[in-house]
Structures
1.
Amino acid sequence: MPEPLQILRSVFGHDKFRGPQEEIVHHVVQGGDALVLMPTGGGKSLCYQIPALCREGLAIVVSPLIALMRDQVETLRQAGVKAAFLNSTLSLPEQREIERAMFTGELDMVYVAPERLSQPRFLDLMERCRLGLFAIDEAHCVSQWGHDFRPDYLQLSILHERFPDVPRIALTATADGPTRKDIVQRLQLEEARQFVSGFDRPNIRYTIVPKRSPLEQLTSFIRSGFAGQSGIVYRMSRAKVEETAAKLCERGFEALPYHAGLDPAIRQRNQDRFLNEEGLVMVATVAFGMGIDKPDVRFVAHLDAPRSLEAYYQETGRAGRDGLPAHAWMAYGFGDVVAMRQMLAANDSDPQRRQIERAKLDALLRYCETTQCRRQILLSYFGEGKGEPCGNCDTCLNPALEWDGSLAAQKALSCIYRTGQRHGMGHLIEVLLGLETEKVCLNGHDKVSTFGIGKDLTSKEWQSVFRQILAQGLMGVDEHGGFHLVEESRPVLKGERKVMLRKDPEAARTRRPKGGTPGMVSAEDEPLWEALRKCRRDLAQRQKVPPYVIFHDSTLLDMVIHRPADLDEMAALDGIGASKLERYGQDFLDVLLSHRK
Ligand code: ADP
Ligand code: ZN
């Protein structure tokens, strides 16, 4: 039996195992069952791919992501692995050919969609094959708790019943307590060893800016170092997606829309372009993303708040799968809080469900409004210990000031009360500032006791106060945007509850780009970097595969840093196994040599 480390090096071109990979691989190679929870980009694939190559017989990989199978298999083939996929996109003769190869033992690995596994015909075929391993990817799809539930996954327990001697490894990036329990139970993995890695994605920088003019802010964010890089922009509605994509194009970015209302052919084409080309911005609703494992997404931007912290973690997690620095950026403002609070108020599901929704919303708002390290808040939400502040989020990099807003909150709440609990923010601020506008006077609000008591703060500061007390649940908002008091307002008004607020940073200064460099390499190395990318692009186009199937950015970056001078030195770089060295080593070496200083 080949050694796992040997395979890691010669086939995949990596030097050493990462984190828990080694333990998992050894456990599975020896025939143990495993449940693996690892964050996106943690390196789950190798946890089953290496056992598949070490163990005798065929490995069956169950994956719900038909659209991705082709790329996954292509990546393996490039590394010299005998892999194939079986799904409905293949013609019948093509399917028969792969079934034949499964039977004759010509394949190491076959990717299949879950619905196929429970078909009697396929079960019979598997009975006649020599099987070495079952890998169940995206295992959370078996759970009704998650939003990716796939009924076909429920059938997968049959694997254990029909093939009790074949080890199984189930993998997922998203599994809270209940989901994990569900996976164990439904896939009959009670005996499996569980490998749970942390949720942290240290290479992702988290930033939230106060929303002012979101498109302008997005544009200057992209220009601050992400021009020409792949990114995803999430918006709440289809209309906003269309509008944002169009505006980005007007400003000279290559942006594509993606939402469920688009013609399926266009949607597919946009997704394919995003995966296959470099430097595109995908503007999308949450319909986009499941299984997008493009490794070089450099930023994920939210122009509307996500639905929950889970959703945020999952959506931002699509950035930086290759481990290189990536940015999760969000513009968040008063409108987002109002929308979320209104949605919750309109929610008429059962009380228990509402309670859960409320807790989720509060957690999200707490994250957005925090003056603490964002990563600590995010990780503690997923049940991970505090640890040190991360040093790679906006609040760590530019500590946000906190101030005692108790008095301001009292003024705001009593102003709501004195003006009849039906006015919105604009009107209340006018009253607080003592402005004798027509509406204020017509309503007689220039006579109320709170008229002009808020002159110590500016209009912008009052907006920040209102946003935060609404976020903290200290007042309520109706469907027209009018504010009213709630139970939680009382202790604030009575001075029994202290209200700490965050001082919003001033609007981010618009930084002009410095020559539009992508920021991955120094200006000096830029020509070599671009030449290497072009070489990769050409090779990829010739084979009609995405560039990252040839080499990841991290490997190209290694070439820039280490400047290998011959194939041996090239082979030492991360991500270059024997097969890729033979196929592409010389091409890239030529580029390197022609850029020698
Ligand atoms: P996941 O499926 O967990 O999101 P992948 O399996 O796609 O993650 O791996 C993420 C990235 O990490 C890939 O670019 C992969 O090549 C890289 N990687 C995985 N394991 C190693 C390792 N041991 N050494 C170096 N790079 C690795
Ligand atoms: Zn931090």
Note: Confidence is low (pLDDT under 50) at residues 507-518.
2.
Amino acid sequence: MNIPGNNTDLRNALEDVNLPNLLAVVACITGDDYWLQDKFAPAPIEAPDGSMFPDDSGRYSDEIAAEIKAAAVQVISELRDGRRPMPPAPDQARLQQLMSFTVAEPVDDGYAAMLMEETRFRDRDDQWKAQLQQAVAAGRAEDFLVVIIGAGMSGLGTAAKLQAAGIPYVVLEKNDAVGGTWYENTYPDCGVDTPNHYYSYSFNRNPNWSGYFSKRDELFAYFDNCADEFDVRGNIRFNTEVRRAAYDNKTNKWTVDIQTGDDAEQISANVVISAVGQLNRPSMPDIPGLQDFAGESWHSARWRGDVDLSGKRVAVIGTGCSCVQLLPKTAAVADRALVFQRTPHWVSPARDYYRPVEQGQLWALNHIPFYAEFHRARMIWSFGDRVWPAVVADPDWQQSGLSMNETNHGMREALTEFIKEGLGEKTHYVEKCVPDFPVWGKRLIVDNGWYPTLARDNVDLITDPIKRIVAAGIEMQDGTVHEVDVLILATGFHTNQFLWPMDIIGKNGQTLEAIWGDAANAYKGVSVPDFPNMYCLYGPNTNIVHGGSIIYQVECQIHYVMQCITAMLEKRLDALEVRAEANKTYNEEVQAISRTLAWGHPNVESWYKNSAGQVVNNSPFSLQKYWQVTHELDLADYHLQQAGDNEAA
Ligand code: NAP
């Protein structure tokens, strides 16, 4: 790493950094356990009031903080000036030791193993890279083609791996650009709810995020740049929609029917990877009369930036994350904003939501060795599985109608106070805003001023049932008509029909839709019996509620799929199909665990559940557990069919 500048630059930067992270850096560079004495132990992670971020100061005394900074200036300047050799990256034992010390909590072996890969102190691709290279060098990837459906976050990440490995692939993208959800959603204040230094590929971190939670344009630019940095853009066919994909038992290949404008075409592929996401097909509400509305109306994911909302009467139906994000800016310009809520969500205070990344922090992320890695590891620790115990049902808990356990109940009380404070004088809204399901029954919405927005004079929260839409506005069951100029439908997405509206036809001639109905399931969320050589990314039961980044989940899946592709080429397999029994056992466990978690609670009605109340979208596992579940491909879980053979094993 080239470290620019002089000691003044360095000292200035250190004013903005996270001190426990800096301590880990100093310990790494020096290799000296002097820095792990009790006097350097930071305070345990505890977010200051109204913040999702742990205190950056470590709560050190001035004297200890000065000693850490002085040591950092010395060792980093020595590295810069070539007076000290660049130390090797920490191994797993050292990472575990340093993390445990600096987060002031025990970090176990499994977590340390996962963090080694997430920081890239260890390259997870090493698990399959050499075998795949050999197979490619032996010409096994000739006449082999992988079709990836979708050029959003999952598709780009997979294309990156295939491109680097020299495996022929094509990405089919229905839009005219990459980015998926970050391309399509342009509503006001659209942004991410996971800190960006974690919400980014582990293999393409961005040290230059302008904020801790970036907004849509910056996120789109990141993914757009990734398409070039990964050198995959040339393999993407834009404006191309997959209509149907059918598996041919004789050739063991997929025939993929695609449509580009008026042109229909067929592609023959060895492997199909669905990277379509869970939130890409807007769901229009089943409210009668939508087409009768005389004003402008649109779905939140199809934002009409050309319509000026200033001075207008605007109605928003739905109060999920999209509505919460778009409302404050909408209400700030509208004459009136009417919010139609069916169910309230829990909203989490987030003082740092709009916090820009400080200049010194940017400098450190770019120029201080190991700092970005420890920063990412700390974000994963703070925003991941630390809350897991709060989402698991305590069988002896008395208030199980409202909460899962004592910690979960404490959150309910704290967030209820937050609601009351935010609503101010509109105390009559409090009851409407407190959910009747446990905290984490749905993913916590990161606050952007939701309750103070509802408290505005020009905003009304309406919870009575809607009867229908009429030309002038929204008619309620009691006959009242709320007249509005604009109607925004923040009503979510088709989530339970995973690959809808594509027809995906397996080896027995049945469609996925027919087999799944609204109870989609897949082995590890990825492989489906009867659908050989087909893999889902962000598939059934892989969404995360308690915390964490969906990019993390998808990278776990990409890693698993790359092992499948490696096995196919290395072992000359024509087909790899998950065994029905393995899938059944896995999904029985998924459902059994889901019933004990906050999002499986009977009071929760959400897009995570199907009509039978089964959780079909969310992962039942902690982040670390899912990493473990997907880390090693076990071929015993699969039927293998070798070239020209019947089943080989
Ligand atoms: P959503 O969470 O599914 O919310 C849809 C809203 O529309 C709900 O309030 C729902 O009420 C309401 N609704 C649906 N049909 C209705 C009907 N017929 N009548 C009245 N109300 C109706 O959708 P979303 O807000 O677009 O968010 C979807 C997901 O996208 C989120 O869960 C999140 O994972 C992701 N997202 C993330 C971010 C971010 O992190 N930055 C931002 C936006 C979205 P009920 O709750 O009663 O069903």
Note: The longest helix spans residues 550-570.
